[in-house]
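Action item from last week, closing it out:
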Amino acid sequence: AKLALLYLSMPFRLRYFIQLFSIMGVLMIASLNYFIAMEHIPLDGSNYNHLSPLEKKEFVGGGASTIRIPHLRVRNPLKFLHADYNKNILMDRATEKFEHSSRYKGKNVGEQSPFSLGWKSMPRQIFNDFETGLSDDSKTIQHANAAKNTRRLPPKGTVAYVLPLTTCAPPRNNAKNFFPYSPNQPKDDESFRDFAVMLRAMIHAQSYQNLSSKSRYDYKMHAIIHPQAKNCAGTDRSVVLQNLGYHVSVKSSPVGIHQLKRFDAAAEILRDINDASDRLPDFARLHAYQLEEYDAVVMVDFDTLILRSVDEALDLIVGDKNGGAGGGGGSSVDAVFSWEHVPLMTHPEAKASVINLSFFALRPSKEMYELLVATLKKAPFSATRGWGSTGRGSYPGWMTTQGFLTYFYDEVRNGAKVELNQCAFGNTAEPSSSKLITNGGTVDCDSSPEASNQCNDCSKTIPDEVRVADLSYCLAPWECGGENSSADNLMSGLCRQYSKKWFGGRLQMEDVHPQLQKTIGKLCIDGQYQPMVIAEH
């Protein structure tokens, strides 16, 4: 009332100007709201039939559609709008790429492709530092091949796929005894990034999150990084992997060289490695056993290529825990793995049969972790025999986790393991060796191939029967037939199939995924790997 009396007591001219400025202010605010939020209506009487169903659909939350907001002459007017009105950059980009994709448009991709549903089969968001992205399946573009019945049982469990990183570069000289040997360890940032992207994408394609896979298991990506493998050539790989959707933990080895009571022979070799801050970095892998929040854990490495569903192997770990088809109320199996054949250092013509860590499924348990650490501290080791009372001799990486777990599941927990067919899980495509060193002694595969199921020649396996490939023999696609390759490697039929599957998956991702640019379609040029090209944010 006092304000009204004050206003009436003002001179007429002053009241006139106040009213005029108020009207002008209201008109300016109304005009600005019109240009920013009002839906554009064609003045020529045309309709919206030329637009896609996605463009016609209004965003949930009410208000006018934001698909056709007129462009203002400012840098980014959308940032001033409410979140419900903000355009989804990735969604618009994916829509455009999908509609112009020659690989998917009007074609039935079929079940041979891991990404048979287009972008629906791929991780919605590969790089987490983009301005906007997709966080739920409801806003994901579906290919015409998508399963019609989306009513599925809940996932049987969640699996942690763990990628251990213990060194920045491939081992040199005696150091290869203490680091896992893999000729495929990426030597630059681009190869490392592409490997991590494709590892996650291929696992995603064979998981519960991809409707076409029919898998009952969801997944999470984890990385266990040793401190000395965290910063490589100025790049913090923990940040790189987190940006790629991995959960990262930096862990040192649970034991030191001074704690190993029966490891004197190895100590002599360790003294020659002057640049190692932690003399047993590879045993940081054992921390994977502590991930009890997951139903199962699968250790993978630089040689891993997931081609088909691995549910059968995971069922052995999870059992009937969540209402599966198995018998009983759970599983007593602690580890599921296959064997790989590694040449002996002393007798290259013979090979040791050891656990393949390119696909090693385990039941997470802190009790098992404590048992492993306690066993490691007192495990017998010989410079000629290796771990345990039987041993396999010396081979690249024999003093690492691979050698220790081979001993552990041979002599300590022999009854808690399941050995998979190495032709289906961890198939290296390498012809079988004539002589194998196993836990049962030396096996001559030429004279008595039936003496061991490990004598199978997996290089002759039908490609469709391989669920998990091991690229240690064939070499990874980013190696481009590097210095470690031979004519036998390059000409192997399975090796060509593995490279084709990996690169074919990458091309499909580039064709429709909004965070990747479409490249010229060549994997290598003059022996140099051609990395993925990331779309601008």
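Closing note: The CA atoms of residues 161 and 298 lie 5 Å apart.
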